[in-house]
């Protein structure tokens, strides 16, 4: 797909992997809409890349509908969707306090919060975006659009306390092929990236010794991933017309341990 002049939507684009992808798409001439709840950062990035910011909560139909309406009013119907919006938490399924022996379990509200954003939110944006893509005429190669989702290596190597996060990201991986098959007759491709440990805002607040230990756990290269490396793979998935229905780890060959 030729990015120049093509409308794109990136969710979770105000920072981290989404911001790197929005910048990379804009650098190739795409017209980028930034979906996020961080208005100040989102507006600043939109001004930087000549895009449009849409304050969107991916867990709410009305908010997502309004975001797509604003993006399409500015740039036209998108042919590109990159889903980077996501959250995480950590809690054992059930655990015993070392202090007093009391027992607690993973809050179902906390579990559902992660599922609603990471999994249902991703599907919500896919469903609404591809319904719009179906209104477009196909390009010369028969393609109408392309989607990249963000899962995590935790989808396959979930650690202690990651039940909700791993379930949400495993769901993203699990729905990639069926959605690609659903949309294959309409010329819309779907792929998913499973990032390892990346230098995102979540990691920036971690102590240096923690980041050093995480970097040392990566076989090669022994460092945290650069968001631009994620963006590079996302653009290749969007660009290459034979890339479809795939889930690809981007992790320096790491396999996550117990904790």
Automatic annotation (TrEMBL):
It comes from the Bacteria. Belongs to the short-chain dehydrogenases/reductases (SDR) family. This is NAD(P)-dependent dehydrogenase (Short-subunit alcohol dehydrogenase family). The lineage of its organism: Bacteria, Pseudomonadati, Pseudomonadota, Alphaproteobacteria, Sphingomonadales. Keywords: Oxidoreductase. The keyword Oxidoreductase applies. InterPro entries: NAD(P)-bd_dom_sf (IPR036291), Sc_DH/Rdtase_CS (IPR020904), SDR_fam (IPR002347).
């Amino acid at each position: 797909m030729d990015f120049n002049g093509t409308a794109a939507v990136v969710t979770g684009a105000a920072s981290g992997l989404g911001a790197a992808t929005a910048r990379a798409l804009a650098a190739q001439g795409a017209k980028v809409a930034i979906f996020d709840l961080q208005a100040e950062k989102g507006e600043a990035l939109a001004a930087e890349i000549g895009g449009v910011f849409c304050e969107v909560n991916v867990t709410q139909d009305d908010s997502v509908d309004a975001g797509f309406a604003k993006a399409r009013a500015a740039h036209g119907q998108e042919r590109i969707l990159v889903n980077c919006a996501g959250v995480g938490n950590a809690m054992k399924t059930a655990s015993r306090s070392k202090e007093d022996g009391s027992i607690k379990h993973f809050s179902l509200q906390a579990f559902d919060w992660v599922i609603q954003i990471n999994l249902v939110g991703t599907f919500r944006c896919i469903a609404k975006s591809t319904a719009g893509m179906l209104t477009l005429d196909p390009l010369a190669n028969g393609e109408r659009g392309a989607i990249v989702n963000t899962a995590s290596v935790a989808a396959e190597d979930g650690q202690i306390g990651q039940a909700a996060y791993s379930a949400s990201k495993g769901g993203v991986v699990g729905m990639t092929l069926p959605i690609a098959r659903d949309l294959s007759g309409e010329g819309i491709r779907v792929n998913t990236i499973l990032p390892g440990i990346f230098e995102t805002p979540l990691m920036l607040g971690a102590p240096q010794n923690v980041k050093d230990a995480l970097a040392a756990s990566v076989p090669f290269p022994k460092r945290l991933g650069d968001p631009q490396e994620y963006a590079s793979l996302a653009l290749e998935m969007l660009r290459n017309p034979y890339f479809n229905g795939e889930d690809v780890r981007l992790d320096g060959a790491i396999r996550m341990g117990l904790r």
